[in-house]
Design brief:
The chain is mainly α and about 260 residues long. About 55% of the residues lie in helices and about 10% in strands. The protein folds into two domains: about 120 residues, no CATH class; about 80 residues, no CATH class. A hairpin with a 6-residue loop joins strand 2 and strand 3. Pfam families: MobI.
């Protein structure tokens, strides 16, 4: 915990600092959401793999077994948890139907991952896939932990400045300066561009190439990516012009040379 400090900030400066810190906290939360989305995507790919594997076993009419592994992905107190589970089947004594209970796999003693436990539970056909997936989950858990630590540090900083922070607090627009709001718009433009074209790079821009909109962006397939990119570019240009004005650099009048 950072000890409380006393600085002679003006009320306006303190509001701007508070706006920046709260916005940084928002971006940390968005980072956790991105990590959560990636973990869910990988879990979905694993379930697709399991379906293909079970279908192939039936097609081949082979008496092979596949595991009952599953994955629990959730956000707990702002932190992304990724846990492996396994189903245990039973037959109901009342109607004879099969049912199952799922329990979390335990990590080996002094281990931060599930590899040893997975080695015991994964079938031979899925062993390599499961291990590769756990490697990716190890990275995501670590990233989520790093972001969580940064969040805690930021909360301590806010408290040391006398800023009352709660996870549900929302900064209203009238508490931010015009420049802080302008900066937030710029950050949102960057986020929007990334959400629409996560793989877009500088080489694509120089070549004038506009890739297809990411299917996960939540945009209709009927939207023209080229027209959308042009509209976003105009917004970014307007943002840059606003930035010049805020910095006291006047823009040339329309029609002037």
């Amino acid at each position: 915990m950072i000890p409380p400090i006393s600085l002679n900030f003006s009320p306006e400066s303190l509001k701007d600092i508070e706006a920046l810190l709260r916005r940084q906290m928002l971006f940390y939360a968005q980072a956790q959401d991105q990590i959560l989305a990636e973990a869910k995507r990988l879990a979905g790919e694993f379930y697709d793999f399991q379906k293909q594997l079970s279908h192939q076993i039936r097609m081949d009419n082979e008496n092979r077994e596949w595991s009952d592994l599953s994955i629990s992905v959730r956000k707990l107190r702002g932190y992304v948890t990724i846990q492996w589970r396994i189903r245990y089947w039973y037959k109901s004594s009342r109607d004879g139907r099969k049912g199952f209970n799922a329990k979390h796999l335990s990590k080996s003693k002094n281990s931060s991952h599930y590899k040893k436990s997975l080695a015991k539970e994964a079938s031979a056909a899925e062993f390599q896939t499961v291990m590769q997936l756990e490697d990716q989950f190890i990275v995501l858990r670590h990233l989520s932990g790093v972001v969580r630590d940064a969040q805690k540090q930021l909360v301590d900083t806010m408290k040391s400045l006398g800023i009352d922070y709660s996870a549900n607090s929302v900064l209203s627009a009238d508490q931010e300066s015009a420049y802080a709001l302008h900066e937030r718009i710029g950050n949102l433009l960057l986020l929007l561009h990334y959400r629409l074209w996560p793989q877009h790079n500088a080489a694509d821009t120089q070549a004038g190439f506009v890739p297809l909109i990411d299917p996960k962006a939540g945009v209709s397939r009927n939207v023209d990516p080229t027209a959308l990119h042009a509209a976003l570019s105009r917004m970014e240009q307007s943002y840059a012009e606003l930035e010049q004005l805020f910095m006291g650099k006047s823009q040339p009048a329309a029609g002037s040379n």
